[in-house]
Amino acid sequence: MPGTNLTRDEAQQRAAHIATQSYAVELDLTTAADTFRSVTTARFTSSAPGSETFVDLIAPSVESITLNGESLDPATHFDGSRISLRSVAADNELVVEATCAFMNTGEGMHRFVDPVDGEVYVYTQFEVPDARRVMAVFEQPDLKAEFTFTLTGPSHWQVLSNAVSPPAEPVRDGVAIWRFPATPRIPTYVTALVAGPYDVVRDSVEGRAGEIPLGVFCRRSMTPHLDAANILACTKAGFAYFEEMFDSAYPFTKYDQVFAPEYNWGAMENAGCVTINETYIFRGKVPETHVERRALTILHELAHMWFGDLVTMRWWDDLWLNESFAEWASTACQAEATEWTGAWTTFCTQEKAWAYRQDQLSSTHPVVAPIRDLREVETNFDGITYAKGASVLKQLVAYVGRDEFVAGLRSYFAKHSWGNTTLNDLLVELEQASGRDLRSWVHKWLETSGVNLLRPVIEIDEQGMITSAVIEQSVASGDDLLRPHRLEIGAYDLVDGRFVRTGVISLDVDGPRTAVPQLIGAARPAVILVNDADLAYAKIRFDPLSLAAILAHPRGFTDTLPHSLALAAVWDMTRDAQMRARDYLPFALAALDGERDSTLVRSLLGQIATCVTHYVAPEHRAAAHQLVIDRLRSLALAAPAGTDAQLQLISGYAELLAPGDDPALVRGLLDGSTQLDGLAVDTDMRWTLVTALAAMGSEDDATGDLVAAEVARDNTSTGRERAARARASRPDPAAKAAAWAEGVEDVRTPNSVIGALAHGFARASDPTLLEPYVATFLDRVIDISATRTFAVAEEINGFYPARLAGPGLLDTTNAWLAAHPDAPAPVRRAMSENRDAVARATAAQERDRKEA
User: Fold this and answer.
1) Of 301, 376, 404, 795, which is the active-site residue?
2) Active site includes 488?
């Protein structure tokens, strides 16, 4: 038994003869500050009486194990992660009494103490395999069961689970017990318990099965910032949309959304009790892209109530289908049923860009990835599983037809409710609804890895008429395979400095060369845009004349989707070392001027920062930095008052400031001596300014008083995290050493603080500050993986000194990989991806050194 790393073979063997019926779980959270009492009564059957099996549990100690009335010695039956049952009966009752541990990692039962009022809040996070940190379970998705939870805790708490919360029953002074009714049959990873003095805003929505209670919960100290009306409006829109699309009633008895502190992910689809990252409660003004992203997250988790919770994957091989479907469905809902009608443009700018980046790493994998064990599951929550999967689902909808796709979904839910499925079960319904054989499509798009590149090759005569037009397809990454693409080609003329679409061609592209006869004999347009409607999943390039026109008119497109596609293609050329970083920067800065799409502003600012800090050759970096700082400052000061652009430009400017830059603007905004009309210098903006001054080594922060004073103003958990980031951003060796000690070495540091420290640590305009940590990181990385949880190890990976990207770090990282062929798979994957980023940056720097 390989301990905590359950394998697919073990899961299949266990499911072959074990069928779970129910769990009754009793938890007492009043016993200690670091542990709690857990008693699990599991009822299950076996088709092989007398056989051996095991139950999963990670706990400091097990006090008793009783199987069918017989006491089993924990010393010989519990190894720290599994309870061995050496002879089960046909019908079984297992009772396990254990002492389980509260976590500070965002996994299992996370315990948080609010620094504002000292109140305790707990919540569970079980995906992938962490229900076993709270109760004794068969931890695999195909062994569904009914769950009945009972929780003892302080009487002033709100206590939530998957079922409607019962009244609290007094136990003793200040202590109560909550006895929940049984859930439907659900997998272990979507069960949930949330407890603490949460504040709540209640509402309801009329669903097909009747009125569904809604609740939005947050910590008391966050209540003044909770925008419950916006959250509930989005939720209600999602209920109406999904019940109609799936032709299926919402499957649970209520729907709670809990904003949780120190949270690792965006959210989690616990059945009827969704937990959401507390950063989605906005303490001040935020860019509209953040509000849009929150709406997408809300809808994503709601879609999971059907796809994932009602119908569940048999094994983690089909994790992609859970997440990809939720991504596609939530974006469709957002575009069609909410104010965010441009959601597919955002999808192009954010999600597909993520997919393309992930698909060009050495760790890329097919969308349908064979998952051999739990460690592989944890590493596959990536841009392939989410964004590429959703991109190809979008293609599939276009291929089979929207009505046919929806009809197949409806049949799928009707046939498999409360059960477990594989991809094949969905394909059967889609094939029947559409009349198409999808197996070839599945092989080319789901069972292979990598992305293709599409490039137009255009020839014209002396009069400017097109004589030849071909789309060339090549392999950009992954498998050596050219795929079929259904796409549009847009023709744009330049009119008064703007690109105006004058024609569109729908085309099936397949093979290395696809002719475009519709263009022959036409006058050459200013821009020919391949994949104009963003239907295809492919990198694109421009012919020379189109590229020249786009570079000369960075804001030439008036529609956001082709504008986003053009910007993405130019950035991709820079990432691929086909354009000098120094040439990209003026283009991107010009594109920023007047940009009003919040997501595009955010994307451009991120790309500019990456360009300056990683892709510009070191000898050109000072000049590039000055160019960017000066231009961002000018754009920020000129931005219309109170706009999203003003907010993001000031933040982007502050986040790039370094020693030697003029601190006057940020200092003035912070102390109030400088004011910009419409700019709210609220708590979060103050932290951005404080961090900028700290990163500059400003005399304002010479003794650390600046950060300390800000903590006194914002003595909250978010304030604690922002302070950690600011301190770690200081440009001196002592600050980097302190950040490393607290973030990497101190096991008491919470997950969210580790992430904040890593961000600050990486902010080093003088990369030599990080040189001592190259060998230290490489020496520690395997041990960190072995001794820390997966979520914490991921946060610590942020301390990899990528700011040193160049030939030296590339050689050192490659040498480590060569010397550690047997390192644990998650470690090798993380290090390979670190290496890939450094290799890309090194190539971009080499290109930047060359003449244009």
Assistant:
1) 301
2) no
